[in-house]
Design goal:
The complex is a heterodimer of chains A (550) and B (228). Chain A is an alpha/beta fold and 550 residues long. Chain A folds into two domains: 10-30 and 330-439, Alpha-Beta Complex (Flavocytochrome C3, Chain A, domain 1); 80-323 and 444-508, FAD/NAD(P)-binding domain (3-Layer(bba) Sandwich). Chain A has helices at residues 13-26, 36-46, 70-76, 105-116, 154-164, 171-191, 223-237, 306-314, 345-348, 368-381, 400-406, 410-414, 416-423, 479-501, 510-521, 540-544, and strands at 55-57, 67-69, 79-80, 94-101, 124-127, 144-145, 205-206, 216-217, 241-243, 246-254, 259-266, 272-282, 318-319, 324-331, 352-354, 386-387, 393-398, 434-443, 446-448, 460-462, 467-468, 507-508, 529-530. A five-stranded mixed sheet of chain B has the order 2-1-5-3-4, with helices on one face. Classes of the chains: A alpha/beta (550), B alpha+beta (228).
Amino acid sequence: MSDYESGYPDYMRESLDKVAATRASRVGKSFKAMTAEEKDKILRDFHPDWKMDQKRGLKVGPSKGQLMPHEVVDILEAHSIIKPEDIDLSSIDYDVDVLIIGAGGAGLSAAILAHDSGIDPDKILIVQKLRLGDANSKMSQGGIQAADAPNDSPTIHYLDIIGGGHYENKPELVEAMVKDGPDVIKWHEELGVLYDKLDDGTMQLAPGGGTSRRRMHSCKDYTGLEITRILMDEVINRQIGYVEFTCAVEFVMDDMGQVAGAVLYDMDSDEYKIARAKSTILATGGFGRLHIQSFETTNHYGATGDGIVMAYRTGTNLIHLDSTQFHPTGSAYPEQIVGQLCTEKLRGRGAQPVNADGELFVYPLETRDVEASALIRECYGRERGVTTPSGMKGVWLDTPLIDVINGKGTIEREFAAMFRNYNKFGIDIRKEPMLVFPTLHYQNGGVEINVRCETSVPGLFAAGEVCGGVHGKNRLMGNSQLDLYVFGRRAGKAAAERAKTAKTGKLNLYHLDRYEKWLREAGVETDRKSPILLPEYRGEKTLKHQLKLL
Amino acid sequence: MENNAEIVTIYVMGKKHKVPGDLTIMKAMEYAGHQFTRGAGCRGGYCGACATLYRKKGSYKLEGALACQKIVEDGMYIAQIPFNPAEKTTYSLDELRPDANTILEYYPELSRCLACNTCTKACPQDIMVMDYVQASLRGDIEQAAKLSFDCISCGLCAVRCPAEIVPYNVGQLARRLYAKYIDGPSQHVLDRVKEVEEGKFDEGIKELKNMDKAALQERYETREKILE
């Protein structure tokens, strides 16, 4: 019996004791990694992407016919939340060279590079739905990949990415990402990002699911926070323009068929504003808050997929939106933090997923899609999970192993965030495992771009999670952090170059009329409107009795 | 969420609500009908958007928490502090030196610190805020950087500080100075950047790009793994 107070309900004690009893015997043991055939089978049998009744073909626009989750088709096959006739485009509120929509890692990087490329700080405008830096970027815990270790190379990184993405990635985007990787880390260090280092001054690098080298750079388990806050500080120091609690709701186009800015919505005053720009960068992030297949999510409050909707109405291509990333380890208990991320770095440093009987049942560092499928199989295929008081199932992530393997104090030092967050709910992850289940984590697909971050519509650039292509059908850990800075920087630079010579014509919103026509022609009859801007978590009764009187 | 939890009474900016007692402050406010624009962010304890002050019925003590991380208690009076009117000085990091008085030069109000420890008590991250404020004051950049590292800039320390210091901005400057000038860059990163620029990997990547799927898959499945 354990000598500490358990943070779990009494009925879980028997299973917890089994985990503790097998712990010593699991040290240094692993589980055989799956063969290509085994991976293929488990994905088909258990991965949510393979539940075909949870998807349908998109009926409108240039990417018509693509299969996507119902929740995504629902926001694409929907009317705009604005009516073009209500909007006066002759009164310009912000007239800039480069407009950036979204202030996460990609948007902030783009702003800094646009400035470096010679655009005046007051001719750059970042619009942000919530606060500067409020994005999934900030929540990234485990780290960022870049092939800078002597035994590693961008070539090996390329192979890991393309195999992990099931060979569906756009090769030129992968090449750009792996080659820019080391330079992104160099840039971060110049900006004052405090990476974890060994005593000799070299980077402390960890393995991740599907990587063949130790390539994960980290800032404890606050990697995204550390990088984002420094980019924010830099944007403020450079006096680059930004406006918070103001979201873009549609792009504005011009009579030359270019994107030429956006219709903004001031969330305080409920008024619309018009931003005109020579180049526009879309960096709005992903769609976790759509709760695909009712999964809980690790995502930020603002991650409602607005960007794909706005871009698609201008006629951009979408790619790989049939594929969604479920992170293998989200919290399954306690109730208050269900769905939140338990970083992959925990497994990178030795934590093992074990079932209710305390048995290791999967190689801990399979790619995320395969690892997540193995957890789902253990709970629902083999019935060897642990059921929580609310009826959810999960398996154990045996975190105490981290200190057993790496020495006492490792968890507190390297997993300060995880340790702190669980402690707040009475669970000491140095002594007890975490109960976990896959959680909706990342939008693998999105707007199609080239290596200059240009979309198929002139004047519109895109970077970060809103884009698809670089990760193929499955993203590896730490590559979304890298993606943000690689393509954010490229977008900022290319958008600045374009802005130096581009001219904008007469503004219009004809693309919204065209989209209505597409909906009609496809026979889509709906009262849905999008983008949705914020998720809805209020109670049924509140919503039923809503009046807008003030 | 299925909920059999005991119902408790909370007061959101004075207005009384009955909510399940196992919800976080954030979820309890939504349960009570509130839709956040300000005051909610990552919902996971990483962004500091949901800084909240509360006082429990019958208590003189004003306490701070993150709304997404704190479970409601019966009789809690709640007010969020979604924005903090703090001064952030601007600077070019490239032009600074990691000298003992650099931080003080940009944040001279540091010298007003009374060492009262109110900031530390207010911190929902349990950071030793006063210790890093004092380290900044003495010019110990390394100590200030390391002690402040887990800060999420929620602002509760600044709201409570009687000397009107903004500790989280001070910590930010300390960390950037420390990382750039004292910790310094890793040589192997600089070496690799140079190799990429020289085109050392171009041929290898070109080879992979030109492979058909079967050959690429073969290469991937048989690749060497060096994870120690």
